[in-house]
Design brief:
Belongs to the nonaspanin (TM9SF) (TC 9.A.2) family. The chain has 258 residues and is an alpha+beta fold. 32% of the residues lie in helices and 32% in strands. Bound molecules: 2-acetamido-2-deoxy-beta-D-glucopyranose. 2-acetamido-2-deoxy-beta-D-glucopyranose (NAG) binds next to strand 11.
């Protein structure tokens, strides 16, 4: 029990501890998980995808809460320095995709995979690719991969207050006609925004931006779904009962006449 309590206190302390950066100090970006957007409980490690990765993968030691959350953080190749903008986009790596890599990426994009990085304890999320819907009959779509990640980071003094990423600054790469070996170049850019918001506002900011679909809507859908089922079943029961009763009445009447 005492061990558990110390763990909880440590977890709370470490989450309250604000990291302070000197200008130009390295801001570590950890890659975390990827998974289908509509099933946030199904997650894989980011480096299971054929993406830019360091020669030696270094995992971050995780807190208890993070382990329970299914986090698997590892260092990334992004070289982000406090208050240093990167623009135009800089190369992250060049990689050559094999047939299997291409198939894996395409499948992930078709399943609407998102990815999650962690920057100064802030989770930032984006989509791996983009599906452009084509004709209706026959149904087809273009599978496109985002190759640039743009980081927006808000800072106040020597602290990071908020961060997000966007992928839409650059045109995606079309994977439909890609033939292995397919060379691809990943890039990134960074913009630092000064803000007056305080470190204490951070929880609100991070929680306020919802990336996942609202669970409330899902609840409504399932409630309506169950209601429809209940009415259908009730309908069947009523139909069967009336038939049986009708038969019984008919028999009763004929019995009477006898
Ligand atoms: C991301 O952050 C930037 C700068 O802080 C902000 O202007 C933008 O609206 C944010 N985008 C989203 C999708 O929250």
């Amino acid at each position: 029990m005492a061990v558990y309590r110390t763990l909880v206190v440590l977890a709370i302390l470490s989450s309250c501890l604000a990291e302070k950066y000197k200008d130009g100090a390295k801001v570590e970006v950890y890659v975390n998980k990827v998974g289908p957007y509509f099933n946030p409980h199904e997650t894989y490690h980011y480096y299971q995808l054929p993406v830019c990765r360091p020669q030696k993968i270094e995992h971050k030691s995780l807190s208890l809460g993070e382990v329970l959350d299914g986090d698997r953080m590892a260092k990334s190749l992004y070289d982000i320095r406090f208050k240093k903008n990167i623009s135009p986009a800089q190369e992250l790596c060049k990689t050559t995709l094999s047939e299997a890599d291409l198939a894996q990426l395409k499948e992930a994009i078709e399943d609407l995979y998102y990815f999650e990085f962690v920057l100064d304890n802030i989770p930032v999320r984006g989509f791996l690719g983009h599906l452009e819907e084509g004709g209706f009959l026959p149904h087809n779509h273009k599978v496109q991969l985002w190759t640039n990640i743009h980081f927006n980071i808000q800072y106040n003094g020597d602290q990071i207050i908020y961060a997000n990423i966007s992928t839409k600054e650059h045109e995606p790469v079309n994977l439909d006609d890609a033939v292995a070996p397919f060379e691809i170049r990943f890039t990134y850019s960074v913009k630092w925004h000064p803000t007056k918001l305080k470190y204490s506002d951070r929880d609100k900011l991070v929680k306020g931006t919802s990336f996942f679909p609202k669970t409330l809507e899902i609840h409504w859908l399932s409630i309506i779904n169950s209601l429809v089922l209940v009415f259908l079943l009730l309908g069947f029961v009523v139909i069967i009962l009336t038939r049986v009763l009708k038969n019984d009445f008919a028999r009763y009447n004929t019995d009477d006449e006898d």
